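Researcher: I need the complex structure. Ligand is guanosine-5'-triphosphate. Inputs:
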Amino acid sequence: MEIRTATYLKSSEFISQCPEHRTTEYAFIGRSNVGKSSLINMLAGNSKLAKTSSTPGKTLLINHFVINNGEWYLVDLPGYGFAKRSKTERAKLEHMIEGYILQRECLTNLFVLIDSRLEPQAIDLAFMRWLGESGIAFSIVFTKADKLSRQRLSENINAYLDKLREEWDPLPPYFITSAETRQGRDELLEYIDSINKTIDTQP
Ligand SMILES: Nc1nc2c(ncn2[C@@H]2O[C@H](COP(=O)(O)OP(=O)(O)OP(=O)(O)O)[C@@H](O)[C@H]2O)c(=O)[nH]1
Ligand SMILES: [Mg+2]
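Model: Output:
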């Protein structure tokens, strides 16, 4: 599948403000700075679509993007776990993210982004546990693959999968990506396409 058009639609603070929905919707979540907005831009083939920053905490709202004139939506979410934010601010963002994930009925699949350079982080494992307990379908996207040698990358991914096997059987689907080299783009788009085909996505 190719993305022919990708346009910004709306930023929302609450689910009640999210656009009315008639098609499938894919959202990206993960720790601040993991590369959610960059991944959306890489998929869309437009580096200016979602705002990115080298400083964590850039995305602060639920951002909807329309793909292929309404065939499906991409959603950029704020990151979780940014320690430098005040307790109140963090609670507000967590509330926003939780509300979206639990209440957005048209959320077709959530992609949980994991920095491929890091060993498994408790906050991500706890977040995925919560998704499982809440019955939310998700897939894992390892990001920033370009920052590691091929061997180091495969060692890290294997170690991560081993950690996940302690809790998950079967493992969630996973993808290895780089917003720099566009690694994983075709696989992710094919995956989204395969889900779209099981659901009528005509607007
Ligand atoms: N080398 C490399 N850098 C990346 C990649 N993806 C993201 N980055 C960089 O990582 C930083 C954070 O990227 P964002 O896409 O803004 O991260 P985010 O997860 O949306 O962050 P918040 O909105 O703050 O939660 C930026 O400096 C990006 O250029 C990647 O695949 N490779
Ligand atoms: Mg962002």
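Model: Summary of the prediction. The pocket of guanosine-5'-triphosphate (ligand 1) is lined by residues 32-38, 52-54, 56-59, 78-79, 143-144, 146-147, 178-180 (CB under 6 Å).
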